[in-house]
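can u do me a favor
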């Protein structure tokens, strides 16, 4: 039988792995590097390992150029990013992620060469999306510039490269105001292409304006032109926004009859929606509204306290 197994080591062997990855990560196969990141962070989240150890292990990523470890690391980082949104460690964590991403971000750049293969394109899109999401200044500025060009263009079709559309839309809307959000909404309403509509809908949920997010939630449920799948995407996207996660669960709960009616009994979409809405909850008050398994998020928040981050940062040399 095949399956996922999390492997733990004693402290001495974890320390050896940390040293090896920092010195010559290429000696360790990419799949193994990805597995080590996965195991370290999940074991830390469960309280088996210290949080400092998993963070120390992740420091080698400043030199990582393979997509597999980054896929795993960024999934874990995005979960942590959402859970820490209301904690005192939030800004410190963002700063740490920017430090990790900067070398590979500047190495890849925004321009594609003729020699760029599919794997490199995938890694570039992955890194650029994370860099903008976590606030790397150069990434945010370039994405804003591309979005402004799109807004002011006389052409009605999308001119942004497919690899960058989602991050440019989201960053432009997050850093912008009513004009940026309105442009994306008009583009969404005028599109008949499923992929473009999904990208625009997810981007519309990137705004920091709570009233607009509430408007998006309501429109996703009440508009006959928005499908059940698109409604789920809109609600899930708002729930993943640090601004929207505080009221998305209440909205879904208070409007469950309408939401459920639009889902039309689709168990898959329903499970996906409920999972996304509850996964980002982290306070005790929020967690009392959902099942007990979510209490693990409270433990996670307590472990990744301000003291843990400051202790790690001061001893890591990352900010020196």
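np, heres the sequence
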């Amino acid at each position: 039988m095949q399956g996922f197994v999390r492997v733990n080591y004693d402290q001495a062997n974890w320390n050896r792995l940390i040293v090896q990855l920092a010195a010559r990560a290429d000696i360790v196969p990419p799949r193994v590097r990805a597995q080590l990141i996965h195991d370290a962070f999940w074991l830390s989240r469960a309280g088996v390992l210290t949080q400092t150890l998993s963070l120390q292990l992740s420091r080698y990523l400043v030199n990582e150029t393979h997509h597999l470890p980054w896929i795993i690391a960024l999934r874990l980082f995005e979960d942590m990013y959402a859970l820490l949104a209301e904690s005192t460690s939030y800004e410190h964590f963002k700063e740490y992620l920017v430090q990790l991403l900067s070398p590979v971000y500047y190495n890849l750049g925004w321009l594609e060469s003729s020699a760029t293969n599919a794997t490199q394109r995938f890694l570039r899109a992955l890194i650029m999306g994370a860099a903008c999401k976590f606030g790397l200044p150069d990434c945010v500025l370039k994405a804003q510039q591309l979005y402004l060009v799109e807004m002011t263009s006389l052409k009605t079709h999308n001119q942004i490269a497919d690899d960058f559309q989602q991050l440019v839309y989201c960053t432009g809307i997050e850093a912008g105001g009513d004009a940026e959000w309105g442009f994306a909404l008009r583009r969404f309403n005028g599109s008949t292409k499923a992929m473009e509509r999904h990208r625009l809908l997810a981007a519309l949920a990137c705004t920091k304006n709570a009233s607009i997010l509430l408007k998006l939630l309501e429109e996703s449920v009440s508009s006959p032109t928005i499908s059940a799948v698109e409604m789920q995407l809109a609600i899930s996207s708002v729930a993943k926004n640090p601004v929207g996660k505080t009221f998305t669960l209440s909205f879904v709960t208070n409007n469950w009859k309408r939401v459920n009616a639009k889902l039309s009994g689709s168990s898959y979409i329903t499970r996906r929606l409920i999972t996304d809405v509850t996964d980002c909850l982290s306070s005790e008050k929020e967690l009392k509204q959902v099942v007990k398994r979510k209490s693990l998020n409270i433990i996670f928040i307590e472990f990744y306290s301000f003291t843990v981050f400051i202790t790690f940062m001061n001893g890591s040399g990352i900010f020196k």
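The chain is about 70% helix and 0% strand. hope that helps!!
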